[in-house]
Specification:
This protein is an alpha/beta fold. It is built from 14 helices and 8 strands. The protein binds iron/sulfur cluster (SF4). Its cofactor is [4Fe-4S] cluster.
Length: about 375
C-alpha cells in the first residue's frame, strides 16, 4: 500500500503543477503545443517530436476574459483565455483550438486578439464526421494543422512517425480504460485521487503516463479486492476536477466506478486502427467516436450508453456534473434524465463553474441523492 500511496502522490504532483511540468519539458529542450478541449489531434503533435499539453483552464476568478466574452460563455473557455492573457502558457509554441462548440469557436477568435506570442492553430471538424466527405474534411483539417505546425515550429511531419505515435496513444487508451474499471475494486482510492490519475495525463508525454498507470495497475492487482461499503456512481459531463466538489463525493462515501466525462474517459474510448496512411487512420478514429455532447448524433445514443455503463459497473446512480453555460451538455441532460428514469437509476444534475468557491448547494444535493438511494 505504501508503494500505491507513492504512486498516487506522483499523479497528484503532476496534476496540480502543470506549469512545473511544462517548464521541465522546455528545460529538456522540447517544444510544447497547447491543446484546448474537447478533442485535439494530439497524436500529430506528438509525432512531430513535441509535447501536446492539455489546457482546460483553471478554477479562478475571471477578469480579463470578461473584456472579450459575454457572460454566458462557459468558464472553461473563459479561464483558458484568462490564463493565456495573463501569460500562464508562456513557453508553448502554439495553441490548437478545435471548433467543437460555440464557446470554443469564440475562444479561437478571442485568442488571436487577446494573446500575443502564442499563435492560434484552428482545428475545424465537420458536423457529419462519419460519411466519406466528412472523413475527407477531417483529414484536410489535420493537413492544415500540420502545415501551420511546420511553419510555426520548424518541425516536420511524416506519416511513419504518426503511425508510431498512434500506437503509443492506443497503448495509453488501453491502460486508462483498464484503470477506470480496476478502481471499482479499490474503494479506498478516493474521487480526488482518481481525478489525479486522469488529469495528470494532460501534462505528460503519453508514453511516460502509460508507464506510471501500468505500475499502479500492477501494484493494485497484487492486492486482494477491498470490501466495498461505498455507494457506486457514474459521473457524466465535460469536467469534474474541482477539489471541493470531489471531496464532497468522498465525504459522502460515493465511489466513482465509471465516467462519461469529456476530460476523463471520453478521450480513451476509441483506438486508431490501421488504414492506407496513418493520417487517414486518425481521421477514421474521429469518425468512429461517439456518445459525446459535442459530437453530432441525431439518435442521442449517449443516454443509453451511460445507462448501460452504470448497469455494467453496478452503479446506483448518475451524477451529471454540468458546466454552467455548456449548451451541448444542457441539451443532452433531458434525454439522459429520461433514460435514467426509465431504467430506475437515480440521476442528479450538479452545476459547476470554474469561478465557484462555494459548493454548499452541491453538497446538499449529494446528501439528498445519497439518502434517496
Ligand atoms: S464546457 Fe461545453 S461550452 Fe464550454 S468549451 Fe466545453 S463543450 Fe464548449
Amino acid at each position: 500500500m505504501a508503494d500505491i500511496k507513492k504512486m498516487l502522490d506522483k499523479f497528484h504532483e503532476v496534476a496540480t503543477n502543470p506549469k512545473m511540468q511544462l517548464e521541465r519539458y522546455l528545460a529538456e529542450g522540447k517544444k510544447a503545443v497547447a491543446c484546448a478541449p474537447v478533442y485535439t489531434p494530439e497524436e500529430i503533435i506528438h509525432s512531430m517530436d513535441m509535447v501536446p499539453f492539455g489546457v482546460w483552464g483553471a478554477d479562478m476568478e475571471l477578469k480579463e476574459s470578461k473584456r472579450y466574452f459575454p457572460a454566458f460563455i462557459c468558464s472553461i473557455a473563459q479561464s483558458v483565455l484568462e490564463l493565456g492573457v495573463g501569460g500562464e502558457y508562456e513557453g508553448v509554441s502554439a495553441m490548437v483550438i478545435p471548433n467543437l462548440c460555440d464557446s470554443l469557436k469564440s475562444l479561437g477568435q478571442n485568442w488571436k486578439y487577446g494573446v500575443s506570442g502564442i499563435p492560434l492553430i484552428p482545428m475545424n471538424y465537420p458536423q457529419n464526421r462519419k460519411i466519406k466527405p466528412g472523413i475527407g474534411f477531417t483529414k484536410a483539417s489535420y493537413e492544415r494543422v500540420i502545415k501551420d505546425l511546420e511553419e510555426i515550429t520548424g518541425h516536420q511531419f511524416d506519416d511513419h512517425s504518426l503511425e508510431k505515435s498512434s500506437e503509443i496513444y492506443n497503448k495509453h487508451n488501453a491502460v486508462m480504460r483498464e484503470i477506470s474499471k480496476l478502481l471499482g475494486d479499490y474503494p479506498s482510492i478516493t474521487a480526488s485521487q482518481r481525478n489525479d490519475i486522469f488529469k495528470s495525463a494532460y501534462f505528460m508525454l503519453k508514453e511516460q503516463h502509460t508507464l506510471l498507470v501500468k505500475e499502479l495497475i500492477e501494484e493494485l492487482k497484487k492486492m486482494p479486492k477491498e470490501e466495498n461499503k461505498k455507494i457506486q456512481v457514474v459521473t457524466s459531463g465535460i469536467l469534474a476536477d474541482n477539489p471541493s466538489l470531489l471531496s464532497i463525493f468522498d465525504e459522502n462515501n460515493l465511489q466513482i466506478v465509471g465516467d462519461d466525462i469529456a476530460h476523463e474517459s471520453r478521450q480513451y474510448r476509441v483506438d486508431t486502427k490501421p488504414a492506407d496512411t496513418a493520417l487517414e487512420a486518425l481521421a477514421n478514429k474521429f469518425a468512429e467516436m461517439d456518445y459525446c455532447s459535442v459530437l453530432y448524433d441525431v439518435d442521442k445514443k449517449r443516454a443509453d450508453y451511460i445507462v448501460n455503463m452504470a448497469k455494467d459497473r453496478g452503479a446506483k446512480g448518475i451524477l451529471m456534473v454540468m458546466t454552467k453555460f455548456c449548451d451541448p451538455e444542457e441539451f443532452d441532460y433531458v434525454i439522459i434524465k429520461k433514460a435514467c428514469d426509465a431504467a430506475s437509476l437515480h440521476c442528479i444534475q450538479i452545476e459547476v463553474d470554474r469561478q465557484m468557491v462555494n459548493y454548499e448547494q452541491a453538497k446538499t444535493m449529494i446528501q439528498t441523492f445519497k439518502e434517496n438511494i
